[in-house]
């Protein structure tokens, strides 16, 4: 296995500064996590953006608001290098997922920022507030140690990523020159389970959010009348059963039309990842005995990265309170997310869903597509930004990272094409989108060094 040479004395000085200022970095992450910023519920977004802008100013970094047509502002800053260098767009988001169920949180709840046995708990601890600060603290470290940064840095931190960035694309189209860069990366997520090295994703599965709505009578009806009235919940169940079979095959006609075909390079990455990850540890982390369909090894890696999906997030219908209520609900809703891999276009996917339901006798079910779905994308491992991140991960973590062909922000890439890589540094078991989201303090501090190494290696390329 390839291991890294020791960092240069110049980089070691940057790493030493990060270690010496660990208390500052930790305190700022605690304060950040303690600020609710829930885009789905429109809670605390502008206030959190103001806090982040002020923190960047205190750290000697440029930051200003860019207002969107709707929604919270983008916090943007451009920190140029003193010598000719490439430009990195550092993408992150300050919004977080809703914290519910609140009662499932321990250690003081979702906004405590409590540190227990070296672990910081709170919504956003990993997704994505530690990533935001990894960028800014790495830049501060360079300024404090060298008086300059090794690459031109553009910081873009938005407040609607968790709801699909519905207002970012229009702003990006108006600001192409502002966003122009040689590479873009997002620090979000955890290291690969069982390896303790970063997971480097060279592409993005697009996420298409869809809500299906079945309606019946004008109001709930006494269930004595079930033989005579429409049954929206059953209609919805029957419709959903036409979309996916027990073998996880999506049954929508022509769904996989033109789908990305793995190249030898892609397959090499699949096999290399399968040889290194611990799938047994992944199962333990998720609390399952086996992957569905008996998948394992390379088959599991390939499916996770390259297989389109149709997931039901939730079903909303009828009465679920204490006791019973004998009604035929007048409405039922299902929320789904479809993961689309490269060459699958969201607009075409929506048309295919509607045509499929019509064909199977469910044309009366309303299809609501949430705004914000952007086309998926993929880049080569040979891109400069890919190579810089792989070199940085190897330097900081001591061995090669795990590289994925497809797993960052399509709303930007649709209007300004930039080779983009998604990578993360949090611990396995970080509980992203779940109660007790957390990050290990040592992983957070190493993540700041990782961000600094990415800037350094890309600046050299």
Query: Whole-Å distance between the termini?
Result: 24 Å
- Strands ordered across the widest β-sheet: 1-2-6-3-7-18-8-17
Kindly provide the name of the CATH class of the largest domain: Alpha Beta
- Which oligomeric form is depicted? single chain
Instruction: Tell how many strands the DSSP assignment holds.
Output: 19
The largest β sheet comes out as: 8 strands, mixed
Q: Structural class, please?
A: alpha+beta
Beta-strand percentage range: 15-25%
Q: Would you give the CATH topology of the largest domain? A: Aminopeptidase
Helix content: 25-40%
Number of domains: 2
Please name the fourth-level CATH homologous superfamily of the largest domain: Zn peptidases
Mean pLDDT: 91
> Any idea what the CATH architecture of the largest domain is?
3-Layer(aba) Sandwich
Query: What are the segments in which pLDDT stays under 50 over at least 5 consecutive residues?
Result: none
Structure, explained:
The strands form five sheets. The protein has an eight-stranded mixed sheet with strand order 1-2-6-3-7-18-8-17. The longest helix is centred in the C-terminal third of the chain and has 20 residues, at 441-460. It has helices at residues 9-20, 22-33, 45-58, 129-145, 168-174, 176-179, 232-240, 264-276, 279-286, 297-306, 346-359, 384-397, 410-413, 441-460, and strands spanning 64-66, 74-79, 87-93, 115-116, 119-121, 152-158, 183-187, 199-201, 203-204, 206-215, 221-222, 309-317, 327-328, 331-340, 366-369, 377-378, 402-404, 420-423, 438-440. It folds into two domains: 9-204 and 377-460, Zn peptidases (Aminopeptidase), CATH 3.40.630.10; 206-259 and 308-369, Alpha-Beta Plaits (2-Layer Sandwich). With 461 residues, the chain is α+β, with helices and mostly antiparallel strands. The chain is 34% helix and 19% strand. Strand 1 and strand 2 (74-79) form a beta hairpin.
